[in-house]
Amino acid sequence: MTPRTRLGPGAGVGVVALSLSLALVFTTAACSAPKQKPGAPYHHTTTGFRNPERSPERHWSWRGLPWILTRLIASFRDIEPPPNHVVSADQALAGLGAMKDRDTLT
Fold first, then answer.
1. In whole angstroms, what is the distance from residue 32 CA to residue 28 CA?
2. How far is CA 38 from CA 41, 47, 51, 55, 73, in A?
3. Residue 7, helix vs strand vs coil
4. 41 HSE (CA, 13 A, CB side)
5. pLDDT at res. 28
């Protein structure tokens, strides 16, 4: 029989403190300014992309919370596609053939 380790009543505080410490480290690392990629436009950085200077800042707003909650709740529901949502292969090929000499964006 394998012995079990039991955590005392103060163990939860340690877990919370560790979680907060890790969150602080990752947040601080994410806030460092990216460096511009040599010879590339301003918005290209060594770590990816950034918005141009004087772009509007995005700030968290409680006004977005209802939308986030709606999307979260909707993610648990089954979605029923509308009737005739999917076309048959013959219909798709016929539509594609009708456009063969025209410029299209699919």
1. 7
2. 9, 12, 17, 22, 45
3. coil
4. 6
5. 62
Is residue 3 scored above 60 in pLDDT? no
* Structure tokens given for 21: 């410490």
**Residues 67, 69: Cα–Cα separation, whole Å:** 5
pTM: 0.26
Contacts for 34 with CB less than 8 Å, ≥ 6 apart: 45, 46, 47, 48, 50
> Which residues pair with residue 45 across a beta bridge?
36, 48
- Alpha carbon 27 to its chain centroid, in Å, reads 17
Closest CA to 50 of 41, 61, 60: 41
Q: Which two tokens stand for residue 44?
A: 């290209």
